[in-house]
Amino acid sequence: MSRGLGNRPVFQPQLVHAGETIAGLNAQFRQDVEDFRLEFTCRDCVYFWPAKTSCTLGWTVETLCAEPIEILDAKAEPAFCKAFEPTGS
Ligand code: SF4
Question: Do residues 65 and 56 lie in contact, with contact meaning Cβ atoms separated by under 8 Å?
Fold first, then answer.
């Protein structure tokens, strides 16, 4: 597989830039979620299947519905699902 800077794959750009921290970016994201009422978790997704621990696409939903809300995990990789489809409600 082709790799970019460090061990990060080319298709996944560096998300934490100089002067930023993972904790700081997550805190800013939580504020953006509140300010703009962003919906992006499994509960807001058309594929969510409340009676199951996985959604209709087969992904485990527990992590994505957990609090606190984070946009980056401890490795600075995206902590959200790219298959999210809003319910539009
Ligand atoms: S597609 Fe992603 S966001 Fe939607 S329910 Fe499944 S895991 Fe959650």
Answer: no
